[in-house]
Amino acid sequence: MSIEIDAIEKSFRGVSALAGIDLQLPAGQLTALLGPSGSGKTTLLRILAGLEAPDQGRIRLAGRDVTDVPVRERRVGFVFQHYALFRHMNVADNVAFGLSVRPRRYRPSAARIRERVAELLEMVQLGHLADRYPAQLSGGQKQRIALARALAVEPDILLLDEPFGALDARVRKELRRWLRNLHDQLHFTSVFVTHDQEEALELSDQVVVMNQGRVEQIDAPQPLYERPASRFVFDFLGRVNVLEGSLHDGVLTQGKASIHLPAGPRPAGPAQLYLRPHELRLDDQPSQRLSAAAGRGHQSDRCRSPRRAAAGWLGE
Amino acid sequence: MATGRARRVGDNTATRRTLIALAALITALFLFMPLVVIIAEAFAAGWSGYIGNILDDYTLDAIGLTLFVALLTVPITLVFGVFMAWLVTRFQFPGRKLLTALIDIPFAVSPIVAGLLYLLLYGRNGWIGEWLGRYDIQLMFAWPGIVMVTIFVTCPFVARELIPVMQQQGSDEEEAGVVLGASGWQLFRRVTFPNIRWALLYGVILTNARAVGEFGAVSVVSGSIRGQTNTLPLQVELLYQDANVVGAFAAASLLAGIALITLVAKSIVEWRQDRP
After folding, report:
1. pLDDT one-digit tens code per residue, B193-206
2. Which one, of A215, A292, A258, lies nearest residue A25 by Cα?
3. CB–CB of B194/B25 below 8 Å?
4. Which of A67, A245, B10, B248 has the lowest tally of Cβ within 10 angstroms?
5. CA distance A171 to A229
């Protein structure tokens, strides 16, 4: 189910959290909202769920305006950062909750609910834990139960708030792959929030990079990584080397070091070159295109030109 | 100094024993002895004397009225406390901090002052009382007045117990519930209530103890009419002033008994609350 976010604004006590967000998220895709803390990504997710009301703007799901539809009628699944499992209910009751609170007319029979819970627990591979309580589960297990609980009500969209934030690195990687597989089987439309660029790039079909309440860039992971549209995105997506110098005729110089940049119109003057460490390679042959004196003394290493000298990252 | 770690207060055996002895002495003098005295005095005229004093018509009336007041007060403060705690911990609104502070007013105000305030407002010549009097409604010097001041004095207990618990638990589970489609009542019954039930029970036990034992505020608005507006604590005082010491202590022993039951119940609930 496609999601349309139209000019959403939100501020808390005069502090702007979202400053006009416009997004079109196609159906069946896994979209990441990526940004540093305070960028407004969680606020946007909560507005999508209806847990927060926007000051301005509309939200549409498959064309239907849901801005004023209360949370409980919005048909969204939400997975909370700290799982928010009902601590006094066992796993099966947790998963059954969404079905068992339905009005009597729409509520499946007790037997049908049991069946459905068993299916869902099978899907998250935790059928054997049905009688356990949340306190007896590991973080990864809790997360999968939270997901099963959210999917039990067959939501139109699935929202996940920092779904792997509280897990250790190994479990996080495993769960990430598992979620991706699950998504490829079921094709639900989902949006997840993360501040981890690796997670966003590996897991999603599309990444929305956010900063200070605005969208910086929207792209598929690969093009996003290769062609960041701003200094912020470049910086945020991975390790970066910044070379300062002055630019004349397509050559950036800093003292004795110089680098030839790919062709393209750029103003002359002081400039900064942003490049990924892996885009450079050490070479023992001197090159016309790039020279850099390394460290102390007279030894001078020569580097080969970057595979992709990052065009468009110069100066302002 | 050969010892590797720093010495702390209490490492010295003599210090430790002195402190423990002091604590035991104070407990004995100020807590245990009075309890023993109450029971000893109550039974000064033997079992039959004790039973006779308890079964005195006026004392029985006082017991009845006290239970009646507690029975009305506890549910009202329970509902009030839950609403208050819910409001303060689940919503952000201007004046929230002020409201949180206001909940404590009955703790801060002397019960006598509370009683006088109610007398001033609802008494025959009071601001509201005069208007009510025209419709022949009398609140003060009657059981409604006693219930009103008891509610005033006890209303913070449940809210005070719930607020920290609900703050600490946060609203994550409730948000999860509402996203899954639960209505307000379903949310309370199936998500919020199971998480706060022990704190709630704890608050109810404290409320009940105070409602049964309240003297100051009740004494101002009751008028102490024997057999009509006399609660058990007031009855103890009346009997004592009548120089019926044994009768006073017999009645007092009932209050002490309630206190002991309260303590036991409180400990059990505390123990339950600490378990995950």
Report:
1. 999 999 999 999 99
2. A215
3. no
4. B10
5. 32
Helix axes B143-154, B111-122, angle to 10 degrees: 130
pLDDT tens sequence across B152-179: 999 999 999 999 999 998 889 999 999 9
pTM: 0.78
Assigned superfamily of B46-274: MetI-like (1.10.3720.10)
**Closest by Cβ to B172, choosing from A71, A73, A82:** A82
Tokens of A25: 């998220």
Phi-psi region of A207 (alpha: psi -120 to 50; beta: other; left: phi over 0): beta
Would you say how long chain B is, in residues?
A: 276
| Secondary structure (3-state) at B92 | coil
Interface size between A and B, measured as CB pairs under 8 A:
61
Dihedral-angle region of residue A266 (phi above 0 means left; psi in -120 to 50 means alpha; beta otherwise): beta
Cβ neighbours for A3, distance < 8 A, ≥ 6 positions apart:
A23, A24, A25, A48, A59, A60, A61, A157, A189, A191
Yes or no, beta carbons of B178 and A71 under 8 Å apart: yes
Among the partner-chain residues B173, B175, B181, the one whose CB lies closest to the CB of A98 is: B181
Helices B193-213 and B57-90, axial angle in degrees (round to 10): 140
**Measured distance CA(B227)–CA(B215) in Å, rounded:** 17
Res B164: pLDDT: 93
pLDDT-based confidence at residue A300 (cuts at 50, 70, 90): very low
